[in-house]
Design a protein that fits this description.
Shape: elongated
Pfam family, one: Polyketide_cyc2
Helix content: 25-40%
Strand content: 25-35%
Structural class: alpha+beta
Protein name: SRPBCC domain-containing protein
CATH topology: Alpha-D-Glucose-1,6-Bisphosphate, Chain A, domain 4
Low-confidence stretches: none
Order of helices and strands: HEHHEEEEEEEHH
Keywords: Membrane, Transmembrane, Transmembrane helix
Organism: Brevibacterium pityocampae
CATH class: Alpha Beta
Number of domains: 1
Number of helices: 5
CATH architecture: 2-Layer Sandwich
CATH superfamily: START domain
Radius of gyration: 20 Å
Largest sheet: 5 strands, antiparallel
Number of strands: 8
Mean pLDDT: 86
């Protein structure tokens, strides 16, 4: 093979790997889910989720947040990421008080990675709430980061627990 053919083969191989990653990332999303039963009503859990300005007081993952929890609005979140932090600005897709909060965030380069994150609140017969937190990841980087993404489940459990603790604190502080 001459040098031009070698370069063509190398470029074609890279294009195939990148295209394959995009297709694989789109067809095989990674989901991380944690479900926790809380001793707080859906309205009380919603109050915790909707108060983004207080996230720094209780949330072990999103250590800073601002923005209005309303469909179409953007939030400005700073999360713990490894030994540092990462800022992202997801768009709120669903803001149904007492029922569901869902947002979608993505990398600056479209198609690399996108996460749709939801908190679904289901009432329990005893007045509590079943909180299901889930994130679905798609994109070209997802096949390469599956292990890291799945390792987020304990973090989701910790956030769910912290939401329940925050709701209990707010219950106790009411007259």
């Amino acid at each position: 093979m001459n040098p031009g053919q070698i370069i063509t083969v190398i470029v074609a191989t890279i294009v195939c790997i990148v295209a394959g990653s995009f297709v694989h990332g789109a067809l095989r999303p990674v989901r991380v889910t944690a479900t926790t039963d809380l001793a707080a009503s859906p309205a009380e859990v919603w109050a915790v989720l909707a108060d983004t300005s207080a996230y720094h007081e209780w949330n072990p993952s999103i250590i800073e947040s601002s923005g209005t929890v309303a469909e179409g609005e953007r939030l400005d979140n700073t999360v713990v990421f490894g030994d540092g932090t990462m800022r992202f600005t997801p768009r709120v897709l669903v803001a149904d008080p007492g029922r569901e909060l869902t947002w979608r965030g993505s990398t600056a380069v479209p198609g690399l990675a996108e996460g749709t994150h939801s908190f679904v609140l289901s009432p329990l017969p005893d007045g509590g709430t079943r909180l299901t937190q889930e994130e679905t990841f798609v994109g070209a980087l997802v096949p390469w980061t599956t292990g890291m993404l799945r390792a987020m489940e304990p973090e989701f459990v910790a956030v769910n627990t912290a939401i329940g603790e925050r709701a209990a604190q707010l219950q106790q502080s009411r007259p």
